[in-house]
Design goal:
Oligomer: heterodimer
Largest interface: A-B, 20 and 12 residues
Number of domains of chain A: 1
Number of strands of chain B: 3
Shape of chain A: globular
CATH superfamily of chain A: Class I glutamine amidotransferase (GATase) domain
Distance between the termini of chain A: 22 Å
Shape of chain B: elongated
Structural class of chain A: alpha/beta
Largest sheet of chain A: 9 strands, mixed
CATH architecture of chain B: 2-Layer Sandwich
Radius of gyration of chain B: 16 Å
Largest sheet of chain B: 3 strands, antiparallel
Distance between the termini of chain B: 7 Å
Radius of gyration of chain A: 16 Å
Strand order of the largest sheet of chain A: 2-1-3-4-11-10-9-6-7
CATH architecture of chain A: 3-Layer(aba) Sandwich
Strand order of the largest sheet of chain B: 2-1-3
CATH topology of chain B: Mth169, Chain: A
Mean pLDDT of chain A: 95
CATH superfamily of chain B: Phosphoribosylformylglycinamidine synthase subunit PurS
Number of strands of chain A: 11
CATH topology of chain A: Rossmann fold
Number of domains of chain B: 1
Helix content of chain A: 10-25%
Number of helices of chain B: 2
Mean pLDDT of chain B: 96
Low-confidence stretches of chain A: none
Helix content of chain B: 25-40%
Number of helices of chain A: 5
Order of helices and strands of chain B: EHEHE
Order of helices and strands of chain A: EHEEHEHEEEEHEEEH
CATH class of chain B: Alpha Beta
Structural class of chain B: alpha+beta
Chain lengths: 228, 78
């Protein structure tokens, strides 16, 4: 039976359909979840999409963090369930405290919309199985991707192998070129680049495929080739 | 009852937008401007019989108005 993967839609999300497409492409069942739901349906993983939830008012992700469904997402993460936040989803995860740090305005102040190269590193997570050590080319599209934390947190994140994705060529001023981090347990991952946008050659690249293939393997989905 | 809340960046947190404003001021001829840090200011209207307003607003700050990883806050009751 295929794994069921929730994709939460907040008001202002705009990458939710892309995530559901990528999930389906790798043989899993995407489950659309509206942020007003008070409980998650029975699912094997939860994905938080990119976009501009609540218009990025106050701080990116600050208000989405209090959407009704998020209490159950935090509980799911607490039980060890795999949770991935992409771009605005990453910002929401930092506001929840599920992953360390915050995402500040880009150092150059400009919205960065282009491809970047990343190295996958750190401990293995449900989203980076068999990817550690690889270099990926993925698109970014953000104005607030400048990862920041106090020096003790940075040292801890580095020491515990929680840096999952590191820029090769820093686009936004993020500390230690960090593009994505996990929690200490490794089941929650946030990253600024968009793996869901590069899952088919016709989209411009396939380097995002490994993230979804990893997830499929992690949640016990029968392996499939997809057309990557 | 009214309250004012100031949310400001902690020392050591980069403020690229503040730096850009400083650069703008200097280029306008205000060369004495050595630094600009941008914060947020909230004016709040509370029920007159609100209980423990200061403690409650501080709780609001910790939960939503400020991200205490990077920001501090100050509450004034009027």
């Amino acid at each position: 039976m295929s794994a069921r993967v929730a994709v939460v839609t907040f008001p202002g999300s705009n990458c939710d359909a892309d995530l559901r497409h990528a999930v389906a492409l790798f043989g899993m069942d995407p489950v659309a979840v509206w942020h007003k739901e008070t409980t998650l349906p029975r699912v094997d993983a939860v994905l938080l999409p990119g976009g501009f939830s609540y218009g990025d008012y106050l701080r990116c992700g600050a208000i989405a963090r209090f959407s009704p469904v998020m209490a159950d997402v935090v509980a799911f993460a607490g039980r060890g369930g795999p949770v991935l936040g992409v771009c605005n989803g990453f910002q929401i995860l930092t506001e929840c405290g599920l992953v360390p740090g915050v995402l500040l305005r880009n150092e150059g102040l400009t919205f960065q919309c282009r491809d970047v190269n990343l190295r996958v590193e750190g401990r293995e997570t449900p989203f980076t199985r068999d990817l550690v050590g690889q270099t990926l080319r993925l698109p970014i599209a953000h104005a607030e991707g400048n990862w920041f934390a106090d020096p003790e947190t940075v040292a801890r994140v580095e020491g515990e192998g929680q840096v999952c994705f590191r820029y090769l060529g820093n686009p936004n001023g993020s500390l230690h070129d960090i593009a994505g981090v996990s929690n200490t347990r490794g089941n929650v991952v946030g990253l600024m680049p968009h793996p869901e946008r590069y899952v088919e050659a016709s989209l411009g690249g396939v380097d995002g495929s490994g993230v979804f293939r990893s997830l499929a393997a992690s949640v016990g989905n029968p392996p499939i080739g997809a057309n990557a | 009852m009214r309250a004012r809340v100031y949310v400001t960046l902690k020392p050591g947190v980069h403020d690229p937008a503040g730096k850009a404003v400083q650069g703008g001021l200097v280029s306008m001829g205000y060369e004495e401007v050595r630094g600009v840090r941008i914060g947020k200011f909230f004016e709040m209207e509370l029920a007159d019989d609100a209980k423990d307003p200061k403690a409650r607003i501080e709780e609001m700050c910790r939960k939503l108005l400020a991200n205490t990883v990077i920001e501090s806050f100050r509450v004034e009751l009027l």
